[in-house]
Amino acid sequence: MAAPIIAASILTADFGNLYRVVRKLERAGVDRIHLDVMDGHFVPNLTFGPDVTAAIRRLTDLPLDLHLMIAQPSLFVDSFLRAGADSITFHVEAPEPEPAKREALEAIRAERRRAGLAISPGTPLAAVEPYRELLDIVMVMTVVPGAGGQRFLRNEAVKIAEARSLLARGTGRGEVHVDGGVNRETALAAGGFGADVLVVGSALFQRGHDTAREVQLVRSLVEEGRRRADDGLDAGTSGEWRVVAQLGRSEAEELTRRMEAAGVEAILVPSFGNGEVGGGERMVLVPAAAESRARRAMGLDAREDEP
């Protein structure tokens, strides 16, 4: 499987200074810029349209990954293609007839861009089955679409594996995206479920957090989740894992041994230090249910996991 792709959603960024936002994300090492387009009808919120998309296109050479949360995507696909979108995903739940959705997907692919369908919580993956031969992307929503900063819905993430199977039966290729609540606490599970593209939003814009570090933490955790899933180990797919410490390698290994001796399962994951992944630091993770016990037993401060 290819390296995890990080698509940075700017939904919660400072729209008063998009130039600075985009430069910051480029320096942080994101792979794509993810643009959430909302019309105030399909979802309650209203964001922006093709003109802002075109403005962002002029600011960066990174691929623009558009997520249309709008009621009539077929009417706007051409405008967003002209604005410079590299991929366009819209919702299978959009209140348009199947022929209109098919035409929209065909129009995107005719321009040699990636075409996708998103599925909201509560929608079975079978809803995208009729379009499978036209799909380069299936986006699994792990929050209710329409707002940033929501919690990851783990029970929806099981659709990721189903989406991979569907793409294999359709175009035989393509990407599974996961969008909603992806951060350092949920990236392990996203990797364990098998996501290719991680849409990361509010986690990249938290005050006091280094954006480049967050990108690398998420990427490292996704890779660890994939490895553990391949080995038949718990990768957070049945419950959340929490970062309880970030230490030098030898100190992290010693802490992990102490935790295991105390009956607390722990995972060591390369962190981000000295400008590269694994640059001397390791994160220590424990199951969320055991976090308090682990912190008490090991004498860990409640803020020790912060970089």
Strand and helix layout:
Layout: E1 5-9, H1 18-28, E2 32-38, H2 50-59, E3 64-69, H3 77-82, E4 87-91, H4 98-110, E5 114-119, E6 137-141, H5 154-157, H6 159-169, E7 175-179, H7 187-193, E8 197-200, H8 211-230, E9 241-248, H9 249-261, E10 267-273, E11 276-287, H10 291-298
Parallel strand pairs: 1-2, 1-8, 2-3, 3-4, 4-5, 5-6, 6-7, 7-8
Antiparallel strand pairs: 9-11, 10-11
Helix pairs in contact: 1-8, 7-8
Describe this structure in words.
The protein has 307 residues and is α/β, with parallel strands linked by helices. It has 2 domains: 226 residues, Aldolase class I (TIM Barrel), CATH 3.20.20.70; 58 residues, Alpha-Beta Plaits (2-Layer Sandwich). The chain has 10 helices and 11 strands. The chain has an 8-stranded parallel beta barrel. The protein has a 3-stranded antiparallel β-sheet with strand order 9-11-10. Helix 1 crosses helix 8 and helix 7 runs parallel beside helix 8. The C terminus is likely disordered.
